[in-house]
Design goal:
The protein has 373 residues and is an alpha/beta fold. The chain is 45% helix and 15% strand.
Length: 373
Amino acid sequence: MKPEKFIVNIPQSEIDDLKYRLGHARLPKALDGKPWSSGPELDFMQDVAAYWREKYDWRKAEAEINSFDNYKVTINDVEIHFVHQKNENPKAKTILLTHGWPDSFYRFHAVIPMLAKDYNVVVPSLPGYGFSAPKGMGSKRIADIWAQLMKDTLGYEEFFAVGGDTGAPVTIALARQHPDITKAIHLTDVGWGMVDEADLKPAEKKFQEETSAWYWSEGAYTMMHATKPMTLAYALNDSPVGLAAWAASFANRGKDHNYVDEAFGGRDAFLTTMSIYWFTGTIGSAMQMYKEEAAQNMSAGWGEEPKATPKCEVPTALTIYPNDAHVPKEWAERQGLNVQRYTVMDKGGHFAAMELPEVFVSDIKAAFNELDS
């Protein structure tokens, strides 16, 4: 099926409704304790709600989104939104960028123009997110859709792929299931799961301990998403303040002060991300991806004896940012990844493409130049 051009144009009535809800939010009382230890601070959320209602300009964000070449196409009965910025050089290489949660294709808004100087750039919205169909699904099915999008729809015989957060398992699945067209991949994390701990190396043991501690203090959202996303969707789809608070709690990465604005590259970028969820009503289907991914992994043998992961031969670059999971190279290799480039940055976090776009682009280009040499 041929892609059709897509223009974002949210009705003014929906913008007015959002502002009304922000102005009539029923906020909780502040709780005692260490700042941010129980979730976003009350004064932070009051400030976010006021800014979103009075100063934030969705029409400006909408114009920025529409400055990209947006399309929609239906693949395997799933409507997919994607940005496709073509380079003028007919010999330019191609790069596919896959976002995660709690963000959207907009994670890459600052880096698309930079990368488009050297590559053809494709940035889809994951199924269940934003302007794609509100249908959550696991990474393996998404990888097949991405392969069809890139090869059959857009005609690219090979490409580089980038992924972080929930975009990481999609990118890894793409490399495993379609190594003939996936030339190399770049990841900022590889996930955390069950392994035989008897032969873990010191760096892996430290990673397991740190990640386990993080999940106990910050990871309640993952269990909620993976078990009862619909229960949570009723609240988050009804309250923009609740939606922003849920995302901010994750984005703050356990810090005792506001790191949310910095993590997203600014308050406006954070609220554009939240507005995309709000206007499309896709927070529930985005969370559903966790449930589908859990079911996919259960069917692959969760609860059984850990098994050796088959080797993935596609060249892999792994870049670690300090305000994110500190994945050691050994752990990624244990997952069967062919890690040929491992980089640890001195600053940045989970949304590096928004927080440090120049650094992110420089690393991506260096990685693929090295892996493609």
